[in-house]
Every structure is written in C-alpha cells, then in structure tokens.
Amino acid sequence: VLSHNLCTVLNVPHDPVALEEHFRDDDEGPVSNQGYMPYLNKFILEKVQGNFDKVEFNRMCWTLCAKKNLSKSPLLIGDEDAFKVWVIFNFLSEDKYPLIIVPEEIEYLLKKLTEAMGAGWQQEQFDHYKIALNTSREGLSAWELIDLIGSGQFSKGMDRQTVSMAINEVFFFFILDVLKQGYMLKKGHKRKNWTERWFVLKPNIISYYVSEDLKDKKGDIILDGNCCVEALPFFYGKKCLFLIKCLDKSFEISASDKKKKQEWIQAIQTTVNLLRAGSPPPHKEARQKRKVFFQKLLAEQEELERQMKELQTANENKQKELETVRKQLEAAAARAAEEEKKRLQTQVELQDRFSLELEREKMVRQKMEEQVAQKSSELEQYLQRVRELEEMYKQLQEALEDEKQARQDEETVRKLQAFFFFDLESAKRAELEKWHLQQQQTIQMTEAEKQELENQRMIKERALQVAMQQLEQLELERKEALEQYEEVKKKLETAANNTKSWKDKVAHHEGLIRLIEPGSKNPHFFSNWGPAAFTEAELEQRQRSWKGKKATSE
C-alpha cells in the first residue's frame, strides 16, 4: 500500500511484480529498512521526474508519521498549521539523520513568524532559550519545533487566527516559493474593466485567482529577464497604478494604496533582476548561504574538535610522559635518599676516623712541641755557652791588648829613662853610681819578673790556643745543633701542614721558649794571663807594686 501510494503521489508507474521479486528472499519481511530502502531508491525515487505535487507528497508523509509522534497536549495551532510547520522543518533542517533544526534556523523561522504577525522580536528571550537549548542538545526535532510554536512561547498576546495566518504566510514563502500575495485590481484586455483578483508572486510567474483559496485560477503573468515594471500616473480614476511589461503583452494593475503599490513594484522588480542574473529565489539563496555557512562552521567545529582531540591525545601523552618522569624522579629521589643516607653514614665514619686521627695528630703535635721545647732549651743552653765563649774570647783579646800596651809602656819608660840618664849623666853620675848597685839589683829582679811574665805569657797563649780549639769545637757543635734545629723545624712545618692548626703556635713559641740560665754569682777577673789568674788580694798587691815602681822611676 505504501509503495502504491508513493507511486501515485510522485506520478511514477507502480510495478507490483518488481516488488514481489525484490522481497522474495528477505527473511525479515518487506517492512525491514535494509530491504525496503534499496527498493525505494531503485524502483521509485530514481524514476521521479519532478512533475508532482510536493504538498500532496508532504501530506502523505505527514499522514504516516503524525499520529505516532504528534504531541497529545493542547496547542495554540491546529493540525493543518502543525502540518505546515512540519513541512517548513523539513525545508530548514540539516541534511543528516536524525533530522534536527539548528538554533540559528529556529531563530530565522521565529523572526519570520513574528514579522508576519506584526509583533516585535524578543531577542533577549530567544538568547536565554538558545543558551538552555545548547546546554542540552544541538537542535530540535520536527515535533519539538511544533510544540515550541504551538506553546505560544514566542507569540504571547496573539490569537489562534493571527498565528495561523503567520504560519500560512511563512509556509507559502518557504515551500510554495510565494514571494508576495494579496488582492489588487486588474484591467481586462477585452472588456477593459477593473476586476479584483488575488495575486500570487513566485520566482518566475505571477498567478491571479478569484479568491485567496486558490481554487479558481484566472491566469498567469510569465516573468523573465526582459520584463519590467513601472509606476503609472493617476488614470481611470485610479491613484495607485503600475504597469508590468512583457514581450507579448502588458498588464495594468492597481494596488489598494501607495504602500502596497510600492511593495509590489519593488518585489516584482527584484524578481526580474534575479531572473536576469540567473540567481535562485532570495529565501533559497539565503538558505543555501546559511547552509554553506553552517557547513563551514561545522567543518571548523570538527577541525577544532580534531585539534582538541589531538591536543587531548598530546596532553595524555604528556601526562604519561610526566607520570613516567615523576616515577623516574621518585626513583631518583629514593636513590638519592639512599645515597644521602650512605653518604651521611660514610661522613659520620669519616668524622669519627678524622677525630681519632686528629687526636693522634694532637698527641703527636704535643710530643713534637715537647721535643721542640726540649730542643729549644738545649739550643738556648748551647747558644748561652757560645755567647760565654765569645765573651771569654773578647776578654782574652782585651787582655792581650793590655799586655801589648804594657810592654809598649815599659819600652817607652826604658827609652825615657835612658834619655834622662844620658842627659843627666854628668849631673847625676855620682847619684847613678850610688844607685847603680840598687838598679842592678832592681834589673835583676825585673829580669826575673820578666822571665816569669814571659813564662806566664806562654802559658796563657797555650791556654788561648786551647780555648780557640774549644771555640771551634763549640762552633761545630753549634752548626750541628742548628742543622738539628732546621730538621726539627722542617718536621714541625710538615706536622703543621697536616694538622693546619699549630704552625702559628710554634711560631709564637719560638719567641717564648728561649730559656735564660742564671750566671755565676762571683765576679770574674781578667788579666793578661787569662781570667781568674789572680785573686783580688794578689791583684791589689800587684797594682800597688806597679804604682810604686812607676813613682820611683819618675
């Protein structure tokens, strides 16, 4: 029955034999979509020529689906208006299943309806509705669109008749390609009388009927690119005249007022211009532009979604990499913590070992300091002995100088005595002879003393040579002590470099560990024969004897 009705409406010959042949081996039966759709495409739709009534075709489809899907709740519109809204939905919906109408097309349709009703468009109200719609789904189905228009949400304050007239006008505009319609007066070609007709303007034709029910058609005005329309002045008692010129004939028409006249002239002129340019009707062109725009937006959205997926995939990969890096960092941190623990343990062991070594170094340094102090004390004693020997050597030198001076003085005295004796020889000859024996005795005593002094000098020289040998021996010992001191000093410097703490103390101690030994309490006496050669009493007696002899000689 469905196939027969479709063939009847689409003006396609029906072939029952082909139907039976197609579904012979179909176990699911002829109602299966997989089996019926290939038959529908091959034996019905491919044979359609386009010379069928689209409204009747839509009405048959509406009859098949309306009873099952139309809402049972009371609506502001009737079944006929619901059918027209359904047909408009099929025209404005997207070309993919399931069919939906996007919010932009809903806004366009509601604006057309509001304009046809003569009301103002509530943009803010629709924006709120659009936001609520976008959060739930992409668009509306045909039945949801019928419920939206039938609920009166965007036609508050309008009665059923106004809403029905608006739907009918929009239906004619979108589906029947009616660009403009209305009553006007037309002048007849034969009788030349003026008759009221219902004019309907389509993209390439103007049809006029007896009334607006479109049942009694009186004629057509075929439009093409050669047609033109122009306004006429007041004539025949008609104020709103305009003329439509075609190739074969012209038509004089009178509108009800100037506004209607201008609207019709503009609409017809626009249609002629579109025919000259070969462009489709405005609503179809706008629909095509919107479709291209929506396809572009969809492509951009798909591209954006693809990029978002790629970014999400990249982000997931990055997250995985970060997780891997985090695990590696945790493992590295664990290893670092273990190594730090081992390092701290090793450090503690090294610190303990270093403390023990430091204690040993301190003990070694203390022993070395004691040895240095001892060596320094010995060196100081040795240096004191050296200084004493040097002082003794100086005193011996002074004694030798005194002895030399005494001998020179003695020779001088002798020379003076000889000189004085020679000058006073004649004057004191008697006195000299008197004293000759005494002098001879004195000379003998002097010779004896001289011999004794010479012997003592020889003894002192031998003692001086012995002292010089001792001094040289002491100098060698001093050099050896200095070498030992240098060796000890090098050892101290090595110990200072190892411990890095006692060098300054040793340098400080070098100036403090010089030991000072007490000298002899008794005073030392020196003479030409060496130190301590005479006692103090003997020295005083000798001094008195020398002074007496000197006074006698003078």
TrEMBL record:
SUPFAM superfamilies given in the database record: PH domain-like (SSF50729)
Domain PH: 177-273
Coiled coil: 294-505
Entry GO terms, CC: cytoplasm; lamellipodium; nucleus; plasma membrane
Record's function text: Phosphatidylinositol 3,4,5-trisphosphate-dependent guanine nucleotide exchange factor (GEF) which, independently of RAS, transduces signals from tyrosine kinase receptors to RAC. It also mediates signaling of membrane ruffling. Regulates the actin cytoskeleton as an effector or adapter protein in response to agonist stimulated phosphatidylinositol (3,4)-bisphosphate production and cell protrusion.
Gene3D superfamilies per UniProt: Pleckstrin-homology domain (PH domain)/Phosphotyrosine-binding domain (PTB) (2.30.29.30)
Keyword list, A-Z: Cell membrane, Cell projection, Coiled coil, Cytoplasm, DNA-binding, Membrane, Nucleus, Phosphoprotein
Gene Ontology MF term list: DNA binding
The protein's name in its UniProt record: Switch-associated protein 70
A matching Pfam family: PH
Domain of life from the UniProt record: Eukaryota
Compartments, as annotated in UniProt: Cell membrane; Cell projection, Lamellipodium; Cytoplasm; Nucleus
Classification via InterPro entries: EF-hand_SWAP70_N, PH-like_dom_sf, PH_domain, PH_SWAP70
Main location: membrane
Subunit annotation: The SWAP complex consists of NPM1, NCL, PARP1 and SWAP70.
